[in-house]
Write a structure and sequence with these properties.
Blueprint (H helix, E strand, L loop, with lengths): L14 E3 H13 L4 H8 L3 H5 L4 E3 H15 L4 H8 L2 H4 L1 H7 L4 H11 L4 E2 L8 E5 L4 E5 L9 H12 L12 E3 L8 H8 L3 E2 L6 E4 L21 H12 L3 H9 L10 H8 L3 H10 L4 H19 L4 H7 L5 H12 L10
Length: 345
């Protein structure tokens, strides 16, 4: 059997970043689906894809995969795409995951940053859920779109299966479970995933041995600021060399700001002191935790945007905001202008 292709007019909810969309089209083009023909078939222009700030409807991304599979005659194209695409090269989510302390930390950051690449509705608190049992751990895909667009499961699970193979000491997936029946290109699954696959399962999930969650990652430095701007690296070094309590606090915050968990409670835990003690130290230096956090975000925002390596949405996430809207409001308060006005022309 083949996947029952959803009709062209199906309104799949969600969005995809233009960067991620473009990475798939580039791969498909190199495997027999001419780029220009794909754009024409999808009703897209090169300018729409060249704007890194633009987000496109997920339904168009789905249509792109359907069209590319048809044009190349390769029903397993999404699996091969995800296998050969280094996620750290097509999305900031991959870079952040590589900088994580452990595999569990990487999963947490993929949940946070992965939505910058593809953002579709999910049934629980996060797109990917982690469940622990007595003998194994499970990563469960909670996105409802996968019921209508199995290719999303193909690419997501391929990233999760093949990416960690680059640094894990032994196979890390016991079984892969998918909700649909075996497609005609089942052999491609077996070739790429290299693990037992349960088709027609109750849910989309990967079964892992319990050692995986705590396995060290750290493929990048503690936090690879230089990837985005060398100025941020130098700022961190200066803060670490500073004498004031506020400088030491900012140096502590910078490597964790991207997690979205930085707060006075977090700082108190990291420094093994009470909130009141932190407030007292900062008050003696004429500042507050909120003022230092706000000032730090402002300085980093300018550096990230002016370096031109990350989008406005990516900058917002790197600074610990839940999405771009509160960051844009804060940036206008800091500068009187929009974030895009500070990006290279």
């Amino acid at each position: 059997m083949t996947f029952g292709n959803i009709p062209d007019d199906t309104d799949l909810p969600g969005t995809v970043s233009s960067q991620f969309f473009k990475s798939f089209l580039t791969y498909a083009s190199s495997h027999g689906a001419p780029y220009t023909d794909l754009l024409q078939k999808l009703g897209l222009t090169r300018d729409e894809l060249e704007d890194d700030e633009k987000r496109l409807p997920f339904a168009r991304y789905a249509a792109a995969m359907r069209a590319a599979k048809e044009m190349t005659g390769q029903p397993g194209l999404p699996l091969y795409f995800a296998q050969h695409a280094d996620f750290s090269e097509v999305s900031i989510a991959g870079l952040i995951a590589n900088a994580s302390e452990t595999m569990m930390d990487a999963l947490i950051q993929l949940n946070r940053y992965g939505r910058l690449a593809t953002d579709t509705p999910f049934e629980d608190e996060t797109p990917l859920a982690f469940e622990r049992t007595t003998d194994a751990d499970w990563i469960v895909d909670k996105r409802g779109v996968t019921r209508f667009f199995p290719e999303l499961t193909e690419t997501t699970f391929t990233y999760l299966i093949t990416g960690p193979r680059r640094f894990l000491p032994r196979p890390h997936v016991i079984e892969a479970h998918v909700i649909y029946e075996p497609p005609d290109h089942r052999s491609v699954y077996e070739e790429v995933w290299q693990c037992p696959i349960v088709f027609g399962a109750p849910r989309n999930a990967l079964k892992l041995p319990t050692w995986v969650a705590d396995h060290t990652v750290r493929l990048e430095p503690a936090y690879a600021f230089g990837i985005f701007t060398a100025h941020a690296d130098r700022m961190l070094e200066d803060l670490q060399a500073g004498d004031s309590f506020a400088d030491k606090l900012e140096a502590l915050i910078i490597p964790s700001l991207h997690t979205g968990d930085v707060s006075i409670e977090w700082a108190a835990s990291q420094l093994s002191m009470s909130r009141q003690t932190i407030y007292r130290h900062l008050k003696a230096e004429g500042t507050t935790f909120e003022e230092r956090l706000d000032s730090l975000r402002y300085k980093l925002a300018l550096q990230y945007l002016e370096a031109g390596k990350v989008t406005v949405a990516e900058t917002a996430y790197l600074l610990g905001y839940a999405d771009a809207s509160p960051f844009t409001r804060a940036f206008k308060r800091w500068t009187g202008s929009s974030p895009r006005a500070h990006q290279p022309k």
